[in-house]
Amino acid sequence: MLMGEKCVLRPIMESDVPRLVELVNSPEVRKYLRMVFPINDVREREWVERLYKGYPSEIVFGIVPKNEEEIIGTTGLHAIDWVNRDAVFGIAIWDAR
User: Which of 1, 10, 20, 87 is most buried, with most CB under 10 Å away?
Assistant: First the structure.
């Protein structure tokens, strides 16, 4: 966990899946992502499970306001190339509160 003044970066958890599905399926959010089609709980749960199996190709954290439980966004490294030390940084804050 990484703690800042206003928020905490923590691992994505299975309990985040319903919120992630709700947020990612929002047309306002999806237009900025590489996703064309809506997702469901099954696909999102598979993605969360892949985050913690084997040699990661992405490292993602949930963004959570301090003293709260529900994620308001995600941030992390995607398409990690461990040999060439290259990755794509992404951040999405869906609920600015």
Answer: 20
Q: Cα dist. 44→25, 66, 71, 83 in Å?
A: 11, 25, 15, 28
| CATH number of the domain located at residue range(s) 2-93 in this protein | 3.40.630.30
Measure the CA–CA gap between 35 and 15, rounded to whole angstroms: 22
Mode of pairing for the β-strands spanning 2-3 and 59-65: unpaired
Distance CA 12, CA 24 (A): 14
Q: Under DSSP, is residue 16 helix (H, G, I), strand (E, B) or coil?
A: helix
What is the residue extent of each domain of the chain?
A: 2-93
List, for the chain, all residue ranges whose pLDDT scores fall below the cut of 70.
96-97
Angle between the N-to-C axes of helices 41-51 and 17-24, in degrees from 0 to 180, rounded to the nearest 10: 120
